[in-house]
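RIO1-domain-containing protein
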Amino acid sequence: MKLNVKNIRYLTPEDWRVLTATEMGSRNHEVVPTSLISSISGSGIGVHKSISNLAKIGLIAKVKNAKYDGYRLTYGGLDYLALHTHTKGHTVFSVGNQIGVGKESDIFVCASEEGRQLVLKIHRLGRISFRTVKANRDYLRNRQGGSWMYMSRLAAIKEYEFMKALRREGFPVPEPVGQNRHTVIMGLIDAFPMRTISKVGDPATLYSELLDFIVRFAQHGLIHGDFNEFNILIEEKFEGDERVQLIPTIIDFPQMVSIDHANAEYYFDRDVACIKRFFERRFGFTSDEPGPFFKDAIKKVVKRLDVEVEASGFSKKMAKELDVYMKEHGIDGDAGGAEEDHGDNDEDDFENEVLDGEEEEAGGVSLLDGADTEGVPTAEEPSLEKQ
Ligand code: ADP
Ligand code: MG
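Tokens:
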């Protein structure tokens, strides 16, 4: 989905209040009545001007329903609120090119105030996917107001909490920098997905390193659940013209499961099978050794990150809700798709397509423009009560 951040600088304090009010109202109204937006935002005569301004740039959308007219927050509006909070919190200063588009997320390069390059991952659960058209049709029919917002937020919280826990344990994952609403900010890894690597000098070393991660995850109570060539970034280190080292970084955690999960062994085996299949097809490499096996891996559990994360920002209840939602909507990571497709086809290319940037300003479009943000209320993240 397109993210046009240019207008963010031109929103007035009143626009922000009205946008925030629409978000708050959508917690218990699928269509937020105009009068409610007015009263929550405490705005006076300017409220209608702000509403029409926000609707014009697509941050809210007018909905006529049988009983009354009102507005709903769009994904664009939610994006703006999240970015506004990241900017206020000095996490993000500017947003640049889109570098990835997945089935359930959009990935952008962004930068901190100090010019450090970061990644903005925007979770978009509920996006129409041709692979799950049927599930989506059912979803749209049954849709409760704002559930896509809530679920996308759960996915972001989950990803952030797991990234923090894994990073603390020394796993090679991006540095978690911030999280708000349906977005995660993390360190940019200067590397490409393993899928883009056509040759390795010594596949055996990389292969055993990757399988070792699967085992170490399990020994920390976790299964990645989508451990494949798209979610393993490989940094190539050169000495002169010679490539001397391949350094993997693992990304994409919304589908991680605990080793206590009812289908834990299935997910573990699937992660292993993904790596085996890729190494066979791409590098013609097959290992002599069988396994690794789930039963052996969990004999030596050293730490329970699954339990740790549960006690932090991502509760068991949230995990369950997200799990049920993902199952109902056929979201099963890239691995599920890879099993269906078996091979290099356009769908796979689309998922990880590197997009040509549409933003022309070097270093991205800055989100702040001093004067315009004077007195703007900070868009606090609303509480996580389900609508
Ligand atoms: P999805 O859930 O949509 O698969 P991912 O987290 O796997 O999202 O990201 C999609 C793509 O974006 C990756 O395959 C990778 O090319 C790129 N990407 C994601 N995170 C980073 C990062 N921290 N650094 C560099 N590239 C990244
Ligand atoms: Mg991915």
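Residues 17 and 41 are 5 Å apart (CA to CA).
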